[in-house]
Design a protein that fits this description.
It is a single chain. This protein has a single domain, classed as Outer membrane protein transport protein (OMPP1/FadL/TodX) (Porin), CATH 2.40.160. The chain contains two helices and 17 strands. The mean pLDDT is 88. It has a 14-stranded antiparallel β-barrel with strand order 1-2-3-5-6-7-8-11-12-13-14-15-16-17.
């Protein structure tokens, strides 16, 4: 799964359940939309670049890619009532890996001989959401998203044996297509503290959902003589994919236009997931996120550096993947800047994240280091104002 959030949030470790302000969209808790100004319009577009380094102690693998990360739009419907929409990638299925095993390699088997393997994936899943949030009372707000999940992933695994006259080679291809809608619900509570400080608490929940799916899988063996024999074939146009619900909790303390600190806890019971072709590979997840932002002087007339927003964060998680019977662990740190644009409340957000995924060598798990850099344009403008003069 791809990490999701505006780059302000991602630079602060991914927190956002209790955050609310008039220039950012925190779609993980739709109750936050009620904080949008009565005359404001927010547009946020971001792209990221990632580098992945994998090592199993004996060999290394690396890859890199650049992706669209998010498109977010928010504006008020009336005072203390906001609306937001956005497009977000949920998962990325693109990969290509190839290997050749010859005599003397650890994986070489004298019975079957040498072979070459090829593994590839393409496609991904995305979410388009529409949401609204409203202040129920002066301190309590509530919101709801409707999120449309769509996309497909295709995977190919092929093994070609060097002794292609006497040993069957194998090819397996599967494709999963998913579509459907689900709901997210959120609450936020805000209270003033002494010395112009504030306290926010938030909770959001997405319910489990059975999505309509198409699943195709074919596996066959073949020889150099073009003899082909189908091993298995599945075509199910009425398959169901169950994605479990997610519970998110968060608290934050800060001072407006000066600093923000917060922590989030997120959990998903992925062991209840039912995904065609992926049975037994998912475990329950728990994530702890923490982050902070500091602004030396947001309205300084003399120092650009003092107007910059400085962010830092960290996260530790149980990954949803089970490999060789062991759940993958991950942890990471993040940094970021919010660079204000001249004579505007708009800004450019930069963020950097380092995430490490680990497992024990006794279960033949590899270590994975992932570096992500992102840049987004966050436009905050005054709309819906009636001009006195043209």
């Amino acid at each position: 799964m791809e990490p999701a959030g505006s780059f302000r949030s991602m630079a602060m470790g991914g927190i956002g359940i209790s955050l609310r302000d008039n220039s950012s969209i925190y779609f993980s808790n739709p109750a936050s939309y009620s904080s949008l100004d009565s005359n404001s319009f927010v547009f946020d577009f971001g792209i990221d670049y990632g580098m992945n380094f994998i090592s199993d102690g004996a060999s290394d693998f690396s890859s890199d890619d650049m992706n669209f990360d998010h498109l977010l739009i928010g504006f008020p419907l009336s005072k203390r009532w906001g609306f937001a929409l956005g497009l977000l990638p949920l998962s990325n299925g693109y990969y290509k890996m190839a290997d050749e095993v010859t005599e003397g390699d650890p994986d070489y088997d004298a019975i079957t001989g040498g072979y070459s393997s090829y593994h590839a994936g393409e496609g991904g899943f995305s979410t388009f959401f529409l949401g609204t949030g409203v202040n129920i009372t002066r301190r309590l707000s509530a919101g709801m998203n409707i999120a449309f999940l769509f996309g497909q992933i295709k995977r190919t695994n092929q093994f070609d044996f060097a002794d292609f006259y006497n040993v069957y080679s194998n090819n397996s291809t599967e494709k999963l297509q998913i579509g459907g809608a689900n709901f997210d619900y959120g609450l936020q509570y805000s209270a003033p503290l002494k010395n112009d400080l504030y306290f926010n608490a938030g909770i959001s929940l997405s319910s489990g959902k059975d999505y309509n799916s198409n699943y195709d899988h074919i596996s066959f063996k073949y020889t150099a003589y073009s003899n082909r024999d189908t091993i298995s074939y599945i075509s199910n146009s009425s398959a169901k994919t169950f994605i479990p619900g997610t519970l998110r909790l968060g608290v934050s303390i800060g001072k407006k236009n000066k600093f923000t600190t917060g922590i989030d806890f997120i959990t998903t019971k992925w062991s209840d997931a039912k995904i065609p072709g992926s049975a037994g590979y998912a475990a329950d997840t728990r994530s702890f996120l923490a982050g902070a932002e500091y602004i030396p002087d947001k309205f300084s007339n003399y120092s650009f550096i003092k107007r910059v927003e400085y962010r830092i964060g960290a996260h530790i998680e149980d990954n949803y993947l089970i490999i060789n019977g062991e759940q993958v662990k991950e942890y990471g740190v993040s940094l970021g800047l919010g660079i204000p644009l001249r004579r505007s409340l708009s800004k450019t957000n930069l963020f950097f994240d380092f995430t490490k995924k680990t497992g024990s060598s006794t279960n033949n798990l590899h270590n994975e280091n992932y570096y992500t850099m992102g840049i987004s344009l966050n436009i905050y403008d005054r709309w819906f104002l009636k001009r006195k003069f043209d």
